[in-house]
Design a protein that fits this description.
The protein is α+β, with helices and mostly antiparallel strands and 83 residues long. The chain has one domain (7-81). 59% of the residues lie in helices and 13% in strands. It has 3 helices and 3 strands. It has helices spanning 3-6, 28-67, 77-81, and strands at residues 9-12, 15-18, 21-23. Strands 1-2-3 form a 3-stranded antiparallel β-sheet, with no helix packed on it. A hairpin with a 2-residue loop joins strand 1 (9-12) and strand 2. The longest helix is centred in the middle third of the chain and has 40 residues, at 28-67.
Length: 83
């Protein structure tokens, strides 16, 4: 069950209400600004994930060079879920 479904909400002509309190709808300029910030942050996260993959491979290559090719790379949960 998602959090959204568990929050009591109603839709009225005047807007959206949660727990019988009106949730204000920001104007278009504020919405676009927030959306732009979210996109920037998403791009930063994506870039960071790419860097993690690159450096993980470099570390694995260095370990294989030092310890031999018998060492298998370690896969974390974040790497499995990022694809």
């Amino acid at each position: 069950m998602s959090l959204y479904k568990s929050i009591p909400h109603t839709f009225r002509k005047e807007g959206i209400y949660y727990f019988n309190r009106r949730v204000p709808n920001p104007n278009k300029i504020i919405q676009e600004s927030l959306f732009g910030n979210i996109i920037k942050e998403k791009n930063y996260v994506h870039g960071s994930r790419k860097l993690i993959k690159i450096y993980t491979q470099k570390i694995q290559d260095k370990i294989s060079k030092v310890w031999g090719d018998g060492v298998e790379p370690m896969i974390t949960n974040t790497e499995e879920n990022s694809d």
